[in-house]
Amino acid sequence: MSVEQYQRTVNSLDKEIAELEKKKAAADKKAADESKKAESVSISKNASATTIKSKLNEIDRHNKASNKAATESTEFGKKIADKRAKRNDAYLKLQKEQQKEQKAQQKVMDNIKKEYENRIAELEKQSIPSAITYNPTTDDVNSIEQYDVFISHAWEDKEDFVDELYNALTALGIKVWYDTSKIKWGDSMRKKIDEGLKKSKFGIIVLSPNYIAENKYWTKIELDGLFQLESINGKTILPIWHHLTKKEVTEYSPIIASKLAMTTATMTAEDIAKEMLELIPKVSG
């Protein structure tokens, strides 16, 4: 069974135990109430035989009701003990499964970290970044625009956040490489991305669930390129967390998770743009 299944079992047993305890408490109350009623029945010395018989029957009814409720309480107690034993067993199994899952997650994280560390080590040995393949032949190199930042993002996040960030950055005079404005119909996407990476001083990564999805080829290409630029040319990666937790970022890339990052959870696009305006001159200086 999985952690989720064991947790559901524990939750279900907790609910059943709570219901049984309510029923037991009600049975205990009824037993006590009926016992008091039996004790409260009084028979006067001058009562007739008929009255005495009636009073004794009333006492008998209350005693029987009290005994029945006490028996039910005992049965509920047995069921509660049985459920608690099952619950304790399920909880122990849940803890073992959680520990097992945590070890598996830690192993995955260790493997990811090792993979990135190996990747960075390989890149540091290279004299020229392998992902940066674009070599202009017909363009005048000196006329190619230099950008302050390159925005690496998933296209699904454009309307939600990235378009707004781009507008906020450019409004402050920051030169931004952004694929909607720099890639024209018929252009080679890979060439243009390579060009943008090479000609940008810093790389902004908008990390989101869409960005780290398994099927995201281009975001991985851009991230590899940014890692190469940072490791070889000393350029800086500036992460922004968008709808992601620290745990999710760490699972995707421990290296990125270790970097100082901004988050859309507490900052607007304008706030982030102002921070970037302050940060870029400081880093470049």
TrEMBL record:
<dbReference type="GO" id="GO:0061809">
    <property type="term" value="F:NAD+ nucleosidase activity, cyclic ADP-ribose generating"/>
</dbReference>
<dbReference type="InterPro" id="IPR035897">
    <property type="entry name" value="Toll_tir_struct_dom_sf"/>
</dbReference>
<feature type="compositionally biased region" description="Basic and acidic residues">
    <location>
        <begin position="22"/>
        <end position="39"/>
    </location>
</feature>
<feature type="coiled-coil region">
    <location>
        <begin position="87"/>
        <end position="126"/>
    </location>
</feature>
<protein>
    <recommendedName>
        <fullName>ADP-ribosyl cyclase/cyclic ADP-ribose hydrolase</fullName>
        <ecNumber>3.2.2.6</ecNumber>
    </recommendedName>
</protein>
<dbReference type="Pfam" id="PF13676">
    <property type="entry name" value="TIR_2"/>
</dbReference>
<keyword id="KW-0175">Coiled coil</keyword>
<feature type="domain" description="TIR">
    <location>
        <begin position="145"/>
        <end position="285"/>
    </location>
</feature>
<keyword id="KW-0378">Hydrolase</keyword>
<keyword id="KW-0520">NAD</keyword>
<feature type="region of interest" description="Disordered">
    <location>
        <begin position="22"/>
        <end position="80"/>
    </location>
</feature>
<feature type="compositionally biased region" description="Polar residues">
    <location>
        <begin position="41"/>
        <end position="54"/>
    </location>
</feature>
<dbReference type="InterPro" id="IPR000157">
    <property type="entry name" value="TIR_dom"/>
</dbReference>
<dbReference type="GO" id="GO:0007165">
    <property type="term" value="P:signal transduction"/>
</dbReference>
